[in-house]
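Record histidine kinase, 506 aa.
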Amino acid sequence: MQDGIAEKKISVLKNDLDQELAYNEQQVKKAEELLIRLPESIEKVKILLKVSDWYEASYNNPKTLQKAIQYAEEALLISQTLHSNIYSGKCYLQLSMVQELRNNNSMIEVNARKAIEKLTKTNQTNDLGEAWVMVWSAKMRTNAPIAERLDPIFIAASIFEKSRNNKRSGDCYKEISELYFSISDFHNSLNFLKKAIFFYKAANLKESDIYPISSRLNIIYETEKKSMDIIKLKNKTLLQQSKLKNEVFLRNSMVTFVLLLLIILGLLYKSFVFKKKTNKVLEKQQNEINKKNSILQKLVVEKEWLLREIHHRVKNNLHMVVGLLASQSEFLKNEEAVEAINSSQNRIHAMSLIHQKLYQSENLSIIDMPSYIFELAEYLKDSFEIRKSIRFVMDIDSFNLPLSHSIPIGLIFNEAVTNAIKYAFPDHKNGVITISLKTNDNKNYALIIQDNGIGLLDDFDPYNSPSLGIKLMSGLSDDIRGKFQILSENGTKITLEFTINESNLH
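=>
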């Protein structure tokens, strides 16, 4: 029963406060009593803004302005909770106006800009225009450059024109006129004041209100006229002075020209003699340089040939080692020894492929990674005879790496893929090994090798493993200062992240 009576009282109070006009002091007291019981809603936001507006309009001391800010901030929080761009924008605009009364110049523009951000998404053109006026006010108060003061007030005028708010359009153009007057641009000042009067008349302002602006128009007109007369007199004086200076200048120029001509002729003759001697010396030096360049070019060609020959022989020697290991494995009966030799063969092949790539390419110091990774993967498929049972999915960016990083990455790739082939798929069916080597800036790189196999054992510690392959991958990662990880993630996932810069190239 009591709840029903309370609801009726709230309803009566809301009806009493639901009006477009500003509140009086009695209505503000009623509103403050009502706000405590009202739930969070747009209606509560409207009442909060009106109460804030009353405290703003009746400011007598800093306390009333502080109350105006508190009510506006409370309205803002509710508007943000309700995701209302319209009332969030209105709240920011109210905060900007109160900060103007508090002379807090920095916060005027901060709140006005936030109001613009919200109101731009709505159809509240008048409020949007007022927000731009507050930006202009902040610029005026901080004595910003004239261009920064003109921009926001021009935007505000344009917005008010679109909303057909003739009074505010006139106000904006009047302020624009004053700005141009302050920099003595009387022509623009006159034009924009005429435009302001046009909008004031369209807004049906009284002649008594327009008269002071018309008087200002006459003042600007007379000022512009006097300014133009002064400019004409100055131009006339400058023209006469210029004529006198030109006559003196012509006389002096003729004398100077004759003297300069004689000096130039003397210098030209001296330069001709000097140039003739210099050309002989330069011709002799150029011949010597050409001979040295020819010798250096031959040395470069010989060096490149020797490097190619070295890489070719290293590749052949590594292949010979692979062949010797293969011969040795035929005489071994211990399966672990045979497997160790096969692993060593794969590792040596990964290195020999690098040297093969180097002597076949034009650049003898970098490796084309997509081609290298693809060929190494093909070799491992053939080596383990898995072409039908395990599928490879590759996503490799096109880039080159130096030799210092290519060999460690090739060996890590070899170990990771070999382990996946040997241990991830006990039944050798439906196996997928995903290989990714990506870079976003040719500086930071990530190698990811992941399989969809059985994953790691529960008690397996990848960072304290006796496995030679894992120790080798970890050690090679440290050599290139990379971050190495082994995770069990729907299979096994090996990640290597590394960076290439001048400090870790050597």
